[in-house]
Amino acid sequence: MKKRSVLIAGHPTSVSLEEEFWDALKSVAQSRGLSVNALIEEIDQSRTGNLSSAIRVYLLKAARGPGE
Q1: 59 with 23: CB under 8 angstroms?
Q2: What's the pLDDT score for residue 67?
Q3: Residues 6+ apart with CB under 8 A from 31
């Protein structure tokens, strides 16, 4: 588990994710032409629970592809 600091709406926060999730997050951000921080901000805007969990769910849905 790696904890990293990110900025969300100009405020620093920390996110703890396994290294594999950080790698997947970087890959998805790159494919969308976004920084990792910008993608995390996007995920944060639509979440209802824990940010780390929301990121994992987002990445799972991204891996499954559209319509699944």
Answers
A1: no
A2: 66
A3: none
Match 């929301």 to its residue by tokens: 54
Reply yes or no on whether the pLDDT at 61 is more than 90.
yes
Determine the Cα–Cα distance for residues 52 and 64; give it in Å rounded to an integer.
19
Is 36 in contact with 29 (CB distance < 8 Å)?
yes
Predicted local distance difference test score (pLDDT) of residue 9: 83
Here the tokens at position 36 are 């990792």
In CATH, 2-64 is 1.10.3990.20: yes
Category of 50 on φ-ψ map: left (φ > 0), alpha (ψ -120 to 50) or beta: beta
DSSP 5: E
| Cα(4)–Cα(13) distance, integer angstroms | 8
- In the chain, which residue ranges form alpha helices assigned H by DSSP? 19-31, 36-46, 51-64
